[in-house]
Every structure is written in C-alpha cells, then in structure tokens.
Amino acid sequence: MPSGSFLVALRDKLQGEVRDDAGTIAAYSTDASNHRVVPLAVAFPRNEDDVTALAFICAESEVPITARGAGTNIAGNAIGRGVIVDFSRHMKRISSIDPGSQTAVVQPGVVLDDLRRSTAPFGLTFGPDPSTHSRCTIGGMIGTNACGSHSVAWGTTVDNVESLEIVLADGTSISLGGPSQSSSESHENALRELGSEYRNVIKLELGRFRRQVSGYGLHHLISDDRSAIAKSFVGSEGTCGLITKAQLRLVEVPNVRKLVIAGFVDILEAARAASQLATLGPLTVEGMDHQLVTLYDNSFGPRGRPQLPAGNAWLLLEVSGASHDELSDRAAELVGTSIDAGATATHIATLPEEQASFWHLRERAAGLVSRSRDGREFWPGWEDSAVPAQNLHLYVRDFEQLLAAHGRLGVLYGHFGEGCLHVRIDHDMFSESGRKA
User: Read out DSSP for 258-316?
Assistant: First the structure.
C-alpha cells in the first residue's frame, strides 16, 4: 500500500477532490452487487487534465484505478482496492448535439436521462436504456456495454458509439475512431495488427450472436468500420483506459407507440415464444416471471400496479409506427402471433400513462425488490447470461433444473428477445450453513 505521500501528490495535482474519509470510503466500497472491497481513496476529476494526472500518478505508485459511474453495477465492476474515479460530480457536460448527423458529444459523467431530455426537442434519443436510466452514466454504460429494453431494435451501447477520447494507464491521451491523430495511429495500428494475428480464433469465439457481450470486444478489431477501434474499447470496464469524451449515435424517437403484454403459462413458454416474436420487429421483447411480480406486490402492494393478463410469465412487446392505423395493424399482428406461440392472454396498452405503468413495474421490480413475504432475500450475481435467442428456452429449462438441484428459487427476467437473462437467487447469506452452501 502506498504511503500518505501518494494522496498528498494526488491532491496537489488534481483540481477536483480526493477523499479518503471513512464515510466516503464506506460508500464507495460497494455497488449494487453482493461484493465489498474497501478502496484507498475516491477521486472526483474536474477535467481531462485531472484524469491524465491521476493516471500518471497512480501508474508511478502502482495503485490500481477503478472507473465508476453510478455504482449500479451488479457484478462488482465498480469497486476496487485502489483509487475509485467518480466522473459524475464534475465531468457531466453535454458538449454538443448535432441533429443533422444524429450525434452527441458528452463527458463520461452525463446521466442517461439528462442526455435524453437534452436530445428530446430534436426528436432524438440515445437508444440503449437500462432500467437504471435515471442514474446510470454514459461512461458506465460504455464501460459495461449496457443494453436495455430496446436493444432488439436500437442495439447495445457498442452499436451506438462513434468515437472515444481516452486516457491510457501511463497518462497518454488518445482518440479512438475519431479524426486521424499521430498520437492515436500507432495504438490503432497495433490493435488492428492484434486483430489480424488472431483473426481466426476471434471469428470462432466472439461476435457469434447479438448479446454476446462478456469479455473484450476483439471481434471489432477485424472490422473495416472507422468506429470499430472505439467499439473494441466498449465493455472493457475501465481496464484499458479512462474515458474523457464520447461521440454517440442518436436514434429517432417513434411518433406513436403501443405496448402488447402477452401472458404465458410459465417462464419457459415465454422464453420459447420470444425469439419468434422478435422476428416481427418490435422495439422490445422483455420477459419477467410471476416471482418478480409477487416480490413487487410484497414490497409496494398490488394496488397501484397495472393489471397483467392471465399467466405466470409475461412478455412486454412495444411497437411503433408512423400512424395510429399502422400501429394498430402491427399490434394486432403481435397479438395473433403471441397466441399462436402459446400466449394464454394478451392486453394492448394504448395510452402513454398505461404503458409507463407497465414499464415502471418491470424496472422498479428488477431494481428494488429483494425480500419475499416469508423473509427470504433474493440476491443478484447471475447476471446477463446470454445465449442465441432461439436457445433461450433450453437455457431456462436447464437453469431451473440446476436451481432445483441446489434447493434454490430464482426470480427470472431479462431481454428475452435477445436471449439475455437476469436472475435473483434466494441464497441464505445470514446463517453459517447458508453461507457454506
């Protein structure tokens, strides 16, 4: 562990704050996961010069850096034993919005909903929309390649990044995917050479299906797209550099929308139907099971939540169109295909307020509920497991058998149209026998 002179040097060089008081250290030792790691200090850089100085000083003292957005990570991504870097206090400027090119340039600490409010007057939005959209930051979304409900239509974060400016571990600043710069070309060339050398194994292992977002995005290194080098950085969780600026691609906000809610007898049938329904081109194919709804009712009560159609699992299928007539036809097609695919009942939410109530149920239940009426706690940790969408029902079947074999109950939800699953599991963390199990 470095001496106190390390923090003195850090405070001397940074215009932003560096804190190591007990309250700050405790707050930043956890994120939304099950893990706890006590950091040495927390830095709040004010600008790119601060980020450069921070990286250089930490490199000299061999202190690890962990970049943190809002701390909504559920796999321990936002905690570490060295210096935690929180960009959300100062580096939260939206530098520009260009409606013509449908792009925006932002700093990493910009909160997603703030960006969406700023782009709304132009009829544009940032496509990826995780359930934590009210607090997650763009830097954190790039770090984890965040996805969200609309990824079946608008892609994940990597699909919506044009270029990045980053600071490397030695304090060097480079641009990825932007205008050609001599300081960046050597790094980009080295990365392309890496892709060329390992092209065969990369093609075999990576980029095989849409939601394969675990690990480094090396498959982008074998693409000729100008933004491919920047895309290879997305999902690297701050391990390859610290983002200081990002150019993002925006998408047009649909004129009108409807939400089809399809009920199924169980989560397995919902998963089986999801890939078929995704081929019809909806904006969302989100799944959740009855356990999630029960936990929501336990926490908030059923009086206020929307009435779901009959079933024990549901798909939320959003459609858009240029006119109400077109939208009605698309919603009717989804209803018919849902029934053909095994849905027990359906409901079409037309009014924006009613649609928002269903999304509120899905997002709030996933983010806040954790305790059953009998006192069991449901924990995160098995997150973003993904398979090709047509195989999701087989994965769900095998996973539920695995849970049963260990005497566990899982609450399942996720982005079913892309074969992605989130799970909360009722591990017993409070007794010695439970922790041993």
Answer: EEEEEEESSHHHHHHHHHHHHTT--S--EEEEHHHHHHHHHHH-SBTBPPPPSSSEEEE
Q: How far apart are the first and last CA of the chain?
A: 34
Look up tokens 């929180």; give the residue: 86
Residues 6+ apart with CB under 8 A from 278: 152, 285, 389, 417, 418
From 133, 38, 49, select the one nearest 84 (Cα to Cα). Answer: 38
Own/partner contacts of 191-195, CB < 8 Å, gap of 24 or more, are 191/221, 191/229, 191/232, 192/221, 192/229, 194/218, 194/221, 195/220, 195/221, 195/222
- 326 Ramachandran zone, left/alpha/beta (phi>0; psi -120 to 50): alpha
CA gap 276, 332 in Å, rounded: 15
- The half-sphere exposure of 193 on its side-chain side, counting CA atoms within 13 A, is 6
- Cα angle value 161/244/8 (rounded, 5°): 155
- 387: number of Cβ within 10 Å: 18
Kindly report, residue by residue over 163-217, the tens digit of the pLDDT: 999 999 999 999 998 766 666 788 888 999 999 999 999 999 998 888 888 789 9
Within a 13 Å sphere around the CA of 3, how many CA atoms are in the beta-carbon half? 1
Rounded CA gap, 42 and 84, in Å? 5
Burial status of residue 29 (CB atoms within 10 A of its CB: 0-12, 13-18, 19 or more): middle
Q: What is the DSSP letter of 418?
A: G
Q: 35 is written with which tokens? A: 């893990």
Pair of tokens at residue 201: 């194994």
pLDDT tens by residue, 44-99: 999 999 999 999 999 999 999 999 999 988 888 999 999 999 999 999 999 999 99
- Phi, psi (5° rounding) for residue 164? -140, 145
- The span from the CA of 413 to the CA of 270, in Å, is 10
Helix (H, G, I), strand (E, B) or coil at 250: coil
Instruction: Tell if the pTM clears 0.85, that is, is over it.
Output: yes
Q: Exposed, middle or buried: residue 390 (CB in 10 Å: 0-12, 13-18, 19+)?
A: middle
